Amino acid sequence: MYHTQSISQLSSHQSISQPSLVVVGGSRVACLTVATVMFLVFNFQQFRHGPAVHSDECIFQRHPPSTAIFILYGLAVPVLAAFGLCTNFINAVVFMRPKMTPSAFSYLAALSWLDCVSCTLITLTALSRSFFYDIPSWIGYDYQWQVPLFSISTGAANLILACVSLDRFLYLYRFKANNGAPKFCRRKVARYMIFVVIIISIAVNMPYFFVFYVDPITGVCHVTEFYYSTFYQIHNWFTFTLLAICPAIFLLIGNTAIILAFRRWTKQGKACRQACSNANAQTTNKRYQHQMKLTISIVIVITLYMIGELPAHMTSRKSSLNLLFGGDADKVNTQLMEKLEVICITLNALQLSMNIVVYAVINPSFMPEFFVCLRGASDVCFSLCCIPAIRRSWHRCWSRRRQEPRAEERVVSSITPQPLPADEPHQCGCESWSSDSECQNGKHCRAIVGTFAFVDDEEQEPQQPHRDPEIFTTKASGCVQLKEPPTDETAPDEDSLFHSSFIMIN
């Protein structure tokens, strides 16, 4: 409903041609009409002769795979799907970054998450058809769960591509420099459309949960009566029209309209850059280059999705009986369908893994944010591997080793230094061994207070202004202490006195 309203609003504009909008707006009605006519043509014999009697066993039974099919299912498809799972997860994380503000990035983020689900289902399906082809539990997954879940993810992705195509067209056609982006091209509207699209896809594909069931002992697949009913045939055509034909036609017309609007937009951009001042010219140029590359990447992604999705939808076991063979089980060639199915699923896995190449090569906003996310992911991986703790332990041990003394330092530090004599006053009254101040013993010689200098004679020539300092030896500079205290009978000799040398500067 919102698509039709937006397109009808565009039809009032003068610059776009009216027939193209009529085709876009009425594409869904036309496709439903074509689907109804094709359904009546293919089922004319059934309406004429009455319903046929069918067995409850599914015509698409599991068989041992050949060598080529085993290599494709066991090696090629899982590798491509696993690579697509990793790349689409990176795409989703990058497109959800705060700097990815345009609404188109919200659609691309949702598309990447849905592609992650599709790649996971494709990987499990390939393993169930190669290594575990004879295990009943894996067979039950392939028939009962893979079919409806894969239909939900791919159907929602097709509708999201139609929304992003409409978003780009409206942005390029109705963008104004003063008013900004149109109301439809807002992130809030994009999130609302994504929610509605997913609900529609779940509701439409819900009947596929009640079609197949597998015997848990023998692994033989059976179908319910609903599989051969008229309502199921109508539902197949309606689902194929709504989730495949309508988005395909809408995307074809939308891509053409995007290219035409983009040419008009680039002309306006050149005129705007010429009218802008030199200060704003560079910013405006970067802005237009960004939108141009974003639009080109979206067009390429849409084209790749159509190539990989339409054949996979037609060859699926849930709808190929009615879409390709008109509901007649006798016309089904199981060997041919098995080969077509493996080709289509390989092509689909390849298409899902190619999106990151388109984003990285064309989209200018993708690579900077990609490297930021890659750096954050590497930090998380390093943390999980305990590498930072190992680095901290290594630095701690290295710093501790550097702080330990060397062998020479340990030898020097092991020698205990001799304590200096205590600088205490003696009994005689001397303040210390180097000073005889207030000494009461007259036998101690006292230092002459003054400046000592050597003078040759009085006849020294006065014209010599400066003389070099000389070194002399004296008995003591202060209190002359004795090694042993003298007695009254003996007088201190010269050997018992301390000697010290001084440098006297004249």
UniProtKB/TrEMBL annotation:
Domain of life (superkingdom): Eukaryota
Organism whose genome encodes this protein: Drosophila willistoni
PROSITE patterns xref list: G_PROTEIN_RECEP_F1_1 (PS00237), G_PROTEIN_RECEP_F1_2 (PS50262)
Gene Ontology molecular function: G protein-coupled receptor activity
SUPFAM superfamilies associated with the record: Family A G protein-coupled receptor-like (SSF81321)
Xref: CDD domains: 7tmA_FMRFamide_R-like
Protein family according to the UniProt entry: Belongs to the G-protein coupled receptor 1 family.
Protein name (Swiss-Prot/TrEMBL): GK22033
Taxon lineage: Eukaryota, Metazoa, Ecdysozoa, Arthropoda, Hexapoda
Domain G-protein coupled receptors family 1 profile per the UniProt entry, residue ranges: 87-359
Subcellular localization: Membrane
GO cellular component, as recorded: membrane
Ranges annotated as spanning the membrane: 21-42, 70-95, 107-127, 147-171, 192-214, 234-262, 294-314
Keyword annotations of the record: Membrane, Transmembrane, Transmembrane helix
